[in-house]
Amino acid sequence: MAAKVGVLALQGDVREHAAALTELGAHPVDVRRPGDLGGIDALVLPGGESTTMSLLLESAELFEPVARRLAEGMPAFGTCAGMILLARDVVGGRPDQRTFGAVDITVRRNAFGRQVDSFETALEVPDLGQPPVDAVFIRAPVVERVGPEVEVLAKVGGAPVLCRQGPVLVAAFHPELSRDLRVHALFLGDL
């Protein structure tokens, strides 16, 4: 049976992640309220605007239920803003911004620059082989500190941009915006 993968559907690249998951044989489920978490095997936290998403998590009463599921070991995949939400510490966020702390990293919001500084690059990810992954960076965070349990899977300019800790995978870029499904497949391979 196909894995049921929730996609946090409050803001961001929801359709693009759902399309990638469907193409890989998973069953995506929009998560907008606490009841939507029931029966899912994993959760994708998409790119978007991290401060907005954290506020929407609170107003939808989703923050605590998602935090509980993550603490119980639910696999998760966060891209860009999702990486920020899953990080332990955030630099450059709101003083009251909450994160799930599911990955022992410190990230700096918008560290690669403003919208006009967005870029694509051929990202070497040794675990995924050749060719390099087409990685799209849009106002992307950068990892400034990596804890001892975190595996760095790829870097740009010496900065980690794809990391994994246990069942949680985080990317500073937007794999859902390319036709290369290998990063999503890497996540689904752990389910």
Query: How big is the Rg?
Result: 15 Å
Number of separate structural domains: 1
Distance between the termini: 12 Å
Strand order of the main beta sheet, please?
2-1-3-4-12-11-10
Silhouette: globular
Beta strand count: 12
Percentage of residues in DSSP E strands: 25-35%
Measured as a percent range, the helix fraction is 10-25%
**Stretches with pLDDT under 50, minimum 5 residues:** none
Order of helices and strands: EHEEHHEHEEEEEEEEH
Q: Please, what is the CATH homologous superfamily?
A: Class I glutamine amidotransferase (GATase) domain
CATH topology-level fold name: Rossmann fold
The main sheet comes to:
7 strands, mixed
CATH class: Alpha Beta
List the main descriptive attributes of the protein structure presented here.
single chain; 191 residues; alpha/beta; Rossmann fold; 3-stranded mixed beta sheet; 5 helices; globular
Summarize the structure.
The protein is of the alpha/beta class. It has helices at 14-23, 50-59, 63-71, 81-86, 182-188; strands at residues 4-8, 27-31, 42-45, 76-79, 87-91, 103-108, 119-123, 133-137, 142-146, 151-156, 159-165, 168-171.
Tell me what the structure shows.
This protein has one domain (4-188): Class I glutamine amidotransferase (GATase) domain (Rossmann fold, 3-Layer(aba) Sandwich). 22% of the residues lie in helices and 32% in strands. It has helices spanning 14-23, 50-59, 63-71, 81-86, 182-188; strands spanning 4-8, 27-31, 42-45, 76-79, 87-91, 103-108, 119-123, 133-137, 142-146, 151-156, 159-165, 168-171. A seven-stranded mixed sheet has the order 2-1-3-4-12-11-10. Strands 5-6-9 form a three-stranded mixed sheet. Strands 7-8 form a two-stranded antiparallel sheet. The mean pLDDT is 91.
